[in-house]
Amino acid sequence: MKTTFVSIFIALVGTNLFGPVRCSAEDPLASWRDGETKTALIKFVDEISSEGSPRFVPQPERIAVFDNDGTLWSEKPMYFQALFAIDRVKAMAPSHPEWRDKEPFRSILAGDLVAALSSGEEALLEIVTATHSGIATQDFTKIVREWLTTAIHPSTGKRYTQMVYRPMLEVLSYLRSRGFKTYIVTGGGVEFVRVFAEEVYGIPPEQVIGSSGKVAYEVRDGAPTLVKLPGIHFIDDKAGKPVAIHYQIGRRPIMAFGNSDGDFQMLEWVSSGPGPNFGALVHHDDATREWAYDRASHVGKLARGLDEAPRRGWKLFSMSKDWSTIFGGN
Questions:
Q1: In sequence order, which residues have a C-beta less than 8 Å from that of residue 15 and are 6 or more positions away?
Q2: pLDDT digit string (tens) for 69-109?
Q3: 208: Cβ contacts below 8 Å, ≥ 6 apart
Q4: Of 174, 83, 184, the residue nearest 124 (C-alpha)
Q5: Does the pTM of the predicted model rise above 0.90?
């Protein structure tokens, strides 16, 4: 997840109908097809978590980081955060009659997203500022949670948290069963993802790292309140990801999972560590059960990572070849 598109949308969330997946002792990766990829993943985890193994890694150092959009859940036709912001424009429109004659709001209300986003970052920033600013953080959390219980994906008809990848939920559960601490490191909004990360992924909010907007402390009606302000505080994308990991975790992870060139520096940093390490990219190559895209995509572009993964020893998780199931309900 990646590019300046996601950097501007600083908020992401959901509630899963299935909840965090618990791995089976018989087959911790039951939604994975048997083959080289599954074998390599299990072998690495077994070697570094088995005492007496020459590659043993003490439990405090077993840290794994995961991108969110396109790695743990879908990201088409655009990042779910963008769809949330667009829906907020529509919901707030009755209180803003001036939007009927002002772009990009006029085009959004007319259903013309191409025209609404024609000015690029300027339009995106205006949408986010209008829909995410001046609101208390607890109220934002409530709005996001309510949206995820009712909003429907425009292409699949599913709720957004029904579009979480079951094979990756199994990876999260499997790693935690072997003493790992799992983190989300996303270019999306940290406040958005924290709303649903524990319920959906089993990852508590303090283990979610993401882009953030400015926040201020105020006393409103006698109550101490944190208020979302216009402006960007930190963009957790590309080179920002290793920096954020350093600031918030304080250890170099030994496993990293992404899906696009926005995750390249995170995988590069993790795989350059002094001990055992594992890097992987989810490759969206299943046009039947999800989408097929990589080099030419405006969302989740994967070009450099696709070219360099073999040389760097990173695994490519092929949706079409490696996953017998993609979404939790299938």
A1: 145, 148, 149, 161, 196, 199, 200
A2: 999 999 999 999 999 999 999 999 999 999 999 999 999 99
A3: 183, 184, 186, 190, 193, 194, 197
A4: 83
A5: yes
